[in-house]
Amino acid sequence: MKDFKRLFVETKPLHPVLLVILLLAIIGSLLEMATPWLYREIVNFLTSQNLSELFARYLGDKSKTEILFWLIGIYFAIDLINSGLIGQVRFYLDAITGVRSNLLLTKKSLGRILSMSVGFFEKKAPGMLSARMNSGISEIFGIVRSLVVSITPLVINFTIAVVVMFMFSKPLSLVFAIVAPIYVVISIWRARIMRFWQKKLRTQWERQHRLIIDNFYHQQLIKEFSREDYELSRLEATQAKILSMRKTQERLLRLTGFLREFVYVLGYMWVYGYGGYLVLTGKLMIGDLILFVAYLGRVLGPLGSVMQIYDSIQVGMVSIQRLFKIWDYKDEVTDVLGAEPIKVSEGGIEFKQVGFSYKNTKKFKGEKVVFKNLNLRIEPREVVALVGPSGVGKSTFVKLLMRFYDPVKGQVLIDGQDIKHVTQRSLRKHISAVMQDVAVFNNTIGYNIKYGKPAATDQQVTEVAKIANLFDFIVSLRKRFKTMVGEKGVRLSGGERQRLAIARAILKDAKIIVMDEATSALDSENEKKIQDAMWKLIEGRTTIIVAHRLSTVKRADRIVVFDKGKILEQGTHEELMKKSGYYRRLFTMQGQALL
Q1: b/e map of 411-436 (b: 16 or more CB within 10 Å)?
Q2: Which helix (H) or strand (E) holds 546?
């Protein structure tokens, strides 16, 4: 029940239109219930020239031909108004409201997912998120529409039909008292079967969707290792489970469907058999039998429709509840109540007794401790390089600074402000980052450069492209800045993607600059070309450089060497080279070619 209430809350903007659709449905339902009466009048008039008291009052003084034309005219006029006018308006409103619902819920879902921290995406695969969004969103409007629009007219039809049936013949109506409960019991059993198997099937469908998305993303890797057949075999294994489950589900559904139809047919057999007997013995007119049969259809029909709605709701709620789990996910990184925008004037950074560990991510099972008691202060406008072996916490340091994660203890401060107490968006507006894994949209080069500053002029975009040593490459392309980069930047080399990211960060022009392996994909020639430009860029700004290639960090004001989540040593390049520590050994190994 709680989930149903939530459905109405989430679709509140659609309620006015849904009420209009409901009103039209009720009018249409009442008109539809009038047609069997007219059909009865026509049949009885043709077989015995008799009219009911109501029609005799208005048509009794007319000729037989005129009466027939009036009856037929009224019958088809009602049908035209119901199906032709009211029905078409309903279909139009249904279609438009369905689209509005999809757009509204898609925006909400994407907004909720985009608000999640990096830790959320470490645990949830993009393919799974996409599958849950699509299946959940597609079900919500259908269920709300069924609850608001479909059930009320069906209840009206059902009530009117039952009353009319008992008015005409109580013995014939006894079939309803027997058939209806059996029909309902079978339908509830059927719905439970559908819900049980739908949960299992939904998991497998999501697994297939996730596998397909992974194959799209990693198609180059698959080709490099000739693993096409292996990936297809993985898909086939998942599909075999889907097919097996579906067969079991369908066998049970067909069994319950047959039992339900059997009860349905028995009801009609009784009506036709006993009703025919009453007609033959002169106790019932043939038009009255036709009316009774028509209304029996409007009893069992709505009953069947309600049970079908019940079935579809049971199935749909599986997808909706899985979508709600994403919406309700308790994120690890959230803005505190009343958080204010950060005020960055100098750009000083301090890590005070910071402890942090990863828990149950895609990469790590269980807990991996990174920092226990890290203390580091970076002065305003100081350039600090973080070096050390892989996995010692350099990139984690950057992620904590950008508040992709929160420390489990201690504080991260910028200009004396604990970043936990400021809004995440304001924090990141003051940081220009070039991360190790460069992210680009399947859009133009110009769009990707301007992403951090959409209001930038073409002249500014050109300038930063020159600084990042990307301009010559761009002008060599036929469409220049309007060149599409492809999915995940597939049309660019690794170095071109990183230079694009550098240009994007330069354009943002923030007080704090973070470069996490920003030149790792560049060859030595290009690296040397852009290093001078990079140092001009970071002049006067607080800068953190994470690098394995020590040629990138020689000019830093301070080099901090990490090892196993601790600071092993720190100082300038010259100071560290005088020690027989890790930095000197690593620098010597990399050789004079890096000078």
Answers
A1: ebbbbebebbebbbebbbbbbbbbbb
A2: strand 542-546
Q: Are 470 and 496 in contact (CB under 8 A)?
A: yes
Residue 169 near residue 39 (C-beta atoms within 8 A): no
What's the CA gap between 23 and 30, in Å, rounded? Answer: 11
pLDDT band at 525 (very low <50, low <70, confident <90, very high): low
Which of 99, 134, 102, 103 shows the shortest CA–CA distance to 326? 134
**Helix, strand, coil percentages, rounded to 5, for the chain:** 65, 10, 20
Identify the weakest region by mean pLDDT among 89-93, 167-171, 300-304, 493-497.
300-304
Q: Tell me which of 2.40.50.100, 1.20.1560.10, 1.10.287.1080, 1.10.3720.10 is the CATH number of domain 2-327.
A: 1.20.1560.10
pLDDT at 324 over 50: yes
Domain ranges of the chain: 2-327
**Cβ neighbourhood burial of 398 (10 Å; 0-12, 13-18, 19+):** buried
Select from 518, 559, 521 the least CA-distant residue to 537: 518
pLDDT at residue 593, rounded to an integer: 41
Q: Mean of the pLDDT values across residues 119-126?
A: 74
pLDDT digits (tens, 9 = 90+) for 370-390: 888 889 999 999 999 998 887
The pLDDT assigned to 594 comes to 44
Residue 491 has pLDDT above 50, yes or no: yes
Does residue 351 contact residue 419 with C-beta atoms inside 8 Å? no
**Pick from 474, 498, 495: nearest CA to 484:** 474
Give the C-alpha separation, 473 to 471, whole Å: 5
Which residue carries 């194959």 as its tokens? 215
Q: 227-261 pLDDT, tens per residue?
A: 788 888 888 888 898 898 888 888 888 888 888 78
pLDDT at 365: 62
DSSP-derived pairing of the beta strands 512-516 and 431-434 = parallel
Nearest in space to 385 (alpha carbons), one of 579, 595, 584, 562: 562
CA distance 55 to 49: 12
What tokens does 90 get? Answer: 């309903």
Helix (H) and strand (E) counts in the chain: 21, 10
> Can you read off the two tokens belonging to residue 557?
């004001």
pLDDT at 586: 79
Q: In this model, does residue 165 exceed pLDDT 80? A: no
Backbone angles phi, psi at 568, to 5 degrees: -80, -45
Give me 411's structure tokens. 């504080």
Taking CA atoms, 289 is separated from 259, 264, 296, in Å, by: 26, 18, 10
- 394 vs 370: CA distance, rounded Å: 10
